[in-house]
Amino acid sequence: MTDKIILAGMEFFGFHGVFEEERRLGQKFQVDLVLYLDLAPAGCSDNIEQSVSYAEVFELVKGVMTGKSLNLLEALAEEISKVVLASLPLVEGLKVVVKKPGAPIPGNFEYMAVEINRKRI
User: Fold this and answer.
1) Residue 104 has what pLDDT?
2) How far apart (Å, rounded) are the C-alpha atoms in residues 7 and 16?
């Protein structure tokens, strides 16, 4: 069984997109993140040193989402996965979902998104 820490519905304003206007004006993005790690040691000890700080994870994701402009949601998701795995050694794997509610596509929709799953090598 794999334990999880879930951060859902994180919202950020960023300057990402294929179109120049998206990169100039910016828009809202949402990120869901599932971290896979063994939570038994933290559950038994009640010690944050044996788990992952939600606040730290949020700041890592925020750094990517509000940082360097990227064209694709796929690139944002990859960068989030790389930063989280490099910064948090207890995380064995993760699922990243990056949502773009205001994608410049004519039509009615809640959001467009990509989802990736990565694990520590």
Assistant:
1) 87
2) 21
Cβ neighbours, 10 Å, residue 81: 21
**List 95, 99, 100, 119, catalytic entry:** 100
- Find all residues with CB under 8 Å of 99, minimum gap 6, and list them: 29, 30, 31, 32, 111, 112, 113
Residue 1 has a pLDDT of 56
The string of pLDDT tens digits covering residues 7-62 is 999 999 999 999 999 999 999 999 999 999 999 999 999 999 999 999 999 999 99
**Contacts of 21 by beta carbon, 8 Å cutoff, 6+ apart:** 104
Range of the domain at 91: 4-119
User: Could you tell me the CATH number of the domain that includes residue 65?
Assistant: 3.30.1130.10
100 is catalytic: yes
Beta strands in the chain (DSSP E): 4-14, 27-36, 93-100, 112-119
Rounded percentage of the chain residues whose pLDDT exceeds 90:
93
Count of structural domains within the chain: 1
